[in-house]
Amino acid sequence: MQIVRGKKIETLYDAAQIARRNEELAAQIAAGPTKDLLVIAVLKGSFIFAADLTRALHAAGLAPEVEFITLSSYGSGTVSQGVKVIKDIDSDVHGRDILLIDDILESGRTLTYAKELMYERGARNVTIAVLLDKREKRKTDLEADYVGFECPDHFVVGYGMDVAYAFRELPFVGVVTGDAEEAVPAKV
Ligand code: IMP
Ligand code: MG
User: Which residues form the domain of 139?
Assistant: First the structure.
C-alpha cells in the first residue's frame, strides 16, 4: 500500500509484473502481422504502456513507426454514446499493419471506433493491444488481440491511468481504497 496525495493506493500489478508481461506481449506481437508496422497509442491513458511496449517491440526484433491519436467518448445514460477524434494521427495507414495500443478495454466503444476508422482508411490489418481487459463491462463484441492482464471491475489508476487527472505518474497499476488516516501526534 502506498499513500499518494493523501489517498491509500493498493497495488494491483507492480512494475516488475508489468515489465515481464510487456516482454511476453511483444513476443506475441512479433509473431503476428507486422508488415510496415505502425503502432498507434490511444491517448492519454496509454502513454506509459505504449512507451514500454514499443521498446519491448524493439527488443523483440521489430522496427515499428509510432503515432498518437486522442479520442473521446460523448453522451451518457440513455443517450447513445459515440466517439470522436480530438487529435488525429499524421501518417497514412493505407496497406499497413496497425497495432492500436490502449490502457483499458472496457465497453469496447473507443477501440471499435478506432479499429473501424483505420480499416476505412485502408489499413491492411488492425490489431489491438491493451494493458487491462475489463471483460465484465463490455458493451460490444470487440476482443483485444493482446491483453496484459484481466482487470477486476475496480477503477484503477497509475501507469498512465488517472482519476481526475491524478496518479498517471505511478509506476504500477493500483486501486484507490480510501483516504489516508491523519497521523496521530506522539504524546510528550
Ligand atoms: P471503452 O472501452 O470505450 O469503454 O473505454 C475505456 C476507456 O475508459 C479506457 O481507455 C480508459 O481511458 C477509460 N477507463 C476505463 N476504466 C478505467 C479505469 O479503471 N481507470 C482509468 N481509466 C479508465
Ligand atoms: Mg483511454
Answer: 33-165
Which atom in ligand 1 lies closest to the alpha carbon of residue 109? 3
For the residues 64-70, what does the mean pLDDT come to? 98
Helix (H) or strand (E) holding 161: none
Q: How many domains does the chain have?
A: 1
pLDDT of residue 83: 94
Ligand 1 near 45 CB (within 6 A) = yes
CA nearest 23: which of 64, 65, 54, 69?
A: 54
Cβ of 106 below 6 Å from ligand 1: yes
Instruction: Please indicate whether residue 155, judged by its CB atom, sits closer than 6 Å to ligand 1.
Output: yes
For CA atoms 25, 28, 32, 37, the dihedral sign is positive
109-124 confidence digits (pLDDT tens): 999 999 999 999 999 9
Instruction: Share the mean pLDDT of the chain.
Output: 94
Residue 134 lies in a domain: yes
Q: Is residue 65 part of a domain?
A: yes
**Residue 70 C-alpha to ligand 2 middle, in angstroms?**
9
In a domain, 185, yes or no: no
Please report how many Cα atoms fall inside a 13 Å half-sphere around the Cα of residue 49, on the Cβ side: 35
Residue nearest to atom 22 of ligand 1 (CA): 161
CATH number at residue 102: 3.40.50.2020
Residue 177 placed within a domain: no
